[in-house]
Amino acid sequence: MAVTALLDLHLRPDVIETAPSVLAAILADTRAFAGSLGIEVLEDVADPAHLTVVERWESLEHDNAYRAWRATPEGASGLGEILAAPPSLWRYETQSTL
């Protein structure tokens, strides 16, 4: 069953201008990971330092594999270096019966 992951990010104010290139590099690896169905980045209209990354995955297993990879030295992204606070993650399964 497809999974949507919402990753809520709050950027440090001093990286607002450089964050897009950092995030583009990180998200290129995410998009290339097995099971990725696509990614969208939403910017808060009232606060450009507040972003939500919407990730779509083929299954919870694919998303779990991606999260496990990001926790390894090979998958480490450096995202934490541009964040003002730890990210928040929510994951949802698509309900096709509703």
TrEMBL record:
Pfam families from the UniProt entry: ABM (PF03992)
Superkingdom classification of source: Bacteria
All residue ranges annotated as the ABM domain in the record: 8-74
Species the sequence originates in: Amnibacterium flavum
Full protein name: ABM domain-containing protein
Record lineage: Bacteria, Bacillati, Actinomycetota, Actinomycetes, Micrococcales
InterPro entries membership: ABM_dom (IPR007138), Dimeric_a/b-barrel (IPR011008)
